[in-house]
Amino acid sequence: MSQKQVFKPNREFAKDARIKNMCEYQALQDYATEDYEGFWGDAAKEKLDWIEPFSNVLDESKAPFVNWFDGGKLNVSAQCIDRHLHVRKNKAAIIFEGDRGDVQTITYLDLYKHVNRFANLLREDFHVKKGDRVVIYMPMIPEAAYAMLACARIGAIHSIVFGGFSSEALRDRIEDAEAKVVITADGAFRKEQPYMLKPVVDAALTGKTPVKKVLVVQRNHEDVEWVAGRDYSYNEMISQKKSKCEPEVMDSEDPLFLLYTSGSTGKPKGVQHNSAGYILWAQMTMEWVFDVKENDTFWCTADIGWITGHTYIVYGPLAMGATTMMFEGVITYPDSGRPWKMVEDHKINQFYTAPTAIRVLHKTGEHEPSKYDLKSLKVLGTVGEPIDPPAWKWYYEEVGKGKCAIVDTYWQTETGGHVISPLPGATPIKPGCATLPLPGIMAEILNPATGEKVGVGEKGYMCITKPWPAQIRGVWGDEERYIKSYFGDVEKDGKPVYFSGDGAVYDEDGYITITGRTDDVMNVSGHRLGTAEVEAAIKKHDNVAEVAVVGKPHPIKGEGIFAYIVLKCDEGVADEVEEVKAINNIIKKEIGSIALCDDIVFAPGLPKTRSGKIMRRILRAIAKGEKITQDISTLEDPGIVAQIEEMVK
Ligand code: PRX
User: Which of 97, 155, 414, 438 has the most CB atoms lying inside 10 A of its own CB?
Assistant: First the structure.
C-alpha cells in the first residue's frame, strides 16, 4: 500500500460528523486565518463554563511567553465534572477494566464524590494549597484520575511520573518540581501477578527530600513498608471525607500540571501546561478528531503517565462529558485478542493506540480481530510515531473492516493536544500521513535557513508559527531552556517560531508527513527518550570511559537503543555478558526498563572530530548496517570507524 493511495471518509459516518467535509474544514481554517482572536475567543466562550469571563484573548507582548484568556476564571475539575451533573449525572464517566477482567463503572456523580473527597483529603489532611506540586506515581486505576482531578480542584499542580520509571528518575522529578506530596499505590496487577510501586517511592525519598507526605492507595493489597508520620492510607482516610469540596477559583493561566519529557540534554524538562487553554483544546480535539457522540465509549490505551493519557483518557473525554475507558492490564494478555474482546464487551466506538501496539497485535494476533464483534468501532486513532504501511493496512482492514477512518494524530507533550490530524468525517486519508493542521493551528514546514515554507517533497522543520491555547507555557524553573529548546532554531519574518524538533515533508496535496526527530531524541515504543539521558545513566558505571547512544530502526518498537561504550580498562572487556548485565542494571536503576539497550558494543574508541565532537551520524549509519559515505579522513582517528564496523557486523 503506497502513500499515494487515498481513502475517502465513510459517507454514512460523515453525515453526522461535527466537521462533515473539507469545505467545512476550510471554512474553519479560513476563519482562524482571518480573525485568529475571534476564532479562539468564540471557541473559549462556547466550550468553557467561566466563573468570570475573560477580558483578552491573546497577549503576546512577552513572546514567546504568552497569555490566553486573561481575566477569565474557571476550575478545570469543574469543567470535567460539575457542569455535567445536571445532564449526565448517571452516565458513565469512566469504565475501568482491571488486569484480571474486573470491571468498575464510575458515573459522573460517582466521579464528583470521589474527586471531592480526594480534594478534601489533600486540602485538610495534607495542607496542599493552590500552586503546590503533587507527584502522582500510580498504576492505571481510577484513583489516578481522581488524584489528577482532585489536584485540579484545589489548584495544586500535579506532575505524573510514569509507573515504569525507576526510583532515581522519580527522585529527579520530585526534586525538580519540589513536590511536597506523593500519591502512589501499593502496586497493581500485570498479567495476573501483583507488581509493586510503593517500594520505588520509598527508595526515591531516601535522604533529603521536599516530600512531607505520601498517600498510598491499596490496589494489590501486598505488604509494604510504612514510614510513620509520612505515609497515609487512602483507603482508610477517604471514607471520612465530605463529598463536597469547593473548587478553587483559578485564573486562565494558573498552572494545571507539569509533565517531564526528554529533550536533548541528560535532564528531562518539566513541561508546564496551564488551565484554560489546555482544557479548551483537549475538549475541542476530542470533539473534532474522534467525533465522540453522547452515547459513545472512547478508549485510549495510553498510560496516564504520558501526555496522551492526560489529554485523551482524562481531561479531553471528561471535559466533553464522554465515557472514557481505562485499562490496567497488558493488551496482549491473556492473548492478543484482549483489546478486541474489550471492544466487543464495552462496545467501544473510538479506539486510540500507538503504532508499536498495532505492530505487536498484528504480529501476534493477525486474525484475532475477526473473532470478535467490532461493529461498534467508528474511528481508529494512532499516535506517537509514524505508522508503517503494513501496520496501517492491517489496522484499516482487519480492525476497522475498511469502514473506520484512521486518524494519524501528530502532536507532542508540548502541544497539549493534537495539532496535525485527519478529521474522520472530512479528510481523505493516506497511510502513514498525519495530513493537515487542525483548524486554528498555524503549522507549517519551514526551511530553517530561510524561514520560508518548503516546497513539495522538500524536507523541512515542523513549526507552528502562531501561539495556540494548549501550547507549553514554560519549562518548570528554567525560562532560558524554554526559549532555547523551542524558539531558538527557526525564525519566520524575523520572529522566532515554535519548532517541534521534528522533520516533515509536504506532498503534492499539501499533506504533511512527519519524517522523525531532527535532534538526539529517540522514540522507543512511542516513548520519548533522549540519547543524552541514556548516556548519562550509562556513564554512572565505574568502568565506562565514554559512551554514545543512537537510535536504530526496530521492527516492533519503531526505534531501538544502540549504545557504543568505551571501557576504562585498556585490556578490553573481561566478561562481556557481565558488563552488559551491569550496564543494563544501571539503566534500570537510573531510568527504568523502558530505556534498556537493544544493542551494546564495546568499542575501542568513538569516531570524533579533531575538536572532540562525537560523529553520531557515523554511529547511526554503522548501527543501521549502512555504508559510510562521508569523508572520515578528518577524524581524530579515522581507523576507528573500520574497527567499529567490524565489531558490529
Ligand atoms: O517525533 C514526534 C512523535 O512523538 C514526539 C512527541 O513525543 P511525546 O511528547 O512523548 O508525545 C507523544 C504523544 C503525543 C513527536 O515530536 N510523534 C507523535 N505523534 C506522531 C509522531 N510522529 C509521527 N507521527 C505521529 N502521528
Answer: 438
